[in-house]
Amino acid sequence: MALGLCGALVNAVFGIVAGLLVAGADTLVHWRIYQASSVWRRGLRGEDRMNRLLRLTLERRGHRTLIARMVPGHGPADQLVIGPGGVWLVHNEAWQPDFELSHHGGRLFIEGRTQSKLVGGLTARAEAAARLISERAGTPVKVTPVLAVHGGRMPRRTPFQADGITFARPLRLVRWMRRNPTADYTADQVEEITRAAVHALPIGGRVMPAAVPTAQ
């Protein structure tokens, strides 16, 4: 009888613990979905969230971030990140929670449809930014396009690359940029490229004039 009672108690405790674990996991999953879709629900694309994340992470590690710049003839650049490991043009997009992002044959699909306009525009923007910054800096500068995904459903393995662009949730994208350098710049070179980018990619479409040498 005693053994039976102990067994019943153990089973009851196990059932309670298992129930709590399942409930906790379910709550966590729903919380993560809610957080991932919060930008979309507010009618935003995620620039503000990414700005804060960059300030708290990469800017503390020797990177510079230019926010809401314009690439003349190609539209806005949400963030331009310039650091020891290279230069990245960050674009933000928020999709509905049930929208599926996938990649097949090196191409991006959203809800089973290719995204030629999105990826083509972002690639052209990064190439134009690289050309303009290089002209100002007087040295070749590569600008790598990346996309921060806010909301939607993504593959298990992220970041992933499609159409020449890297896609990931904001924090994972920041980690990817740190771990996948495309250059090896000194602190002085980071500042030089930043100054060139400030002049080449204006705010609100205004082109900043080149500095005029003062008379000696």
Which SSEs are present, and which pair or pack?
Elements (H helix, E strand, L loop, with lengths): L1 H40 L5 H10 L7 E8 L3 E9 L2 E19 L2 E4 L2 E2 L1 H22 L5 E11 L6 E3 L2 E4 L1 H10 L7 H14 L16
Parallel strand pairs: 3-6, 6-8
Antiparallel strand pairs: 1-2, 2-3, 3-4, 4-5, 7-8
How would you characterize this protein structure?
With 216 residues, the chain is an alpha+beta fold. The chain is 44% helix and 28% strand. Helix 3 (116-137) crosses helix 5 (187-200).
Short description:
By secondary structure, the protein is of the alpha+beta class. The chain has five helices and eight strands. It is 44% helix and 28% strand.
**Looking at the structure, what is the overall shape?**
globular
By DSSP, the count of extended strands is: 8
Q: Nearest-angstrom radius of gyration? A: 23 Å
Element order, helices and strands? HHEEEEEHEEEHH
State the low-pLDDT regions, or none.
22-34, 205-216
Fraction of residues in H or I helices: 40-55%
Oligomer: single chain
The rounded distance between the terminal residues' Cα atoms is 104 Å
- Major pleated sheet: 8 strands, mixed
The average pLDDT value, as a whole number, equals 83
Proportion of beta-strand residues: 25-35%
Number of helices: 5
Structural class per helix/strand content?
alpha+beta
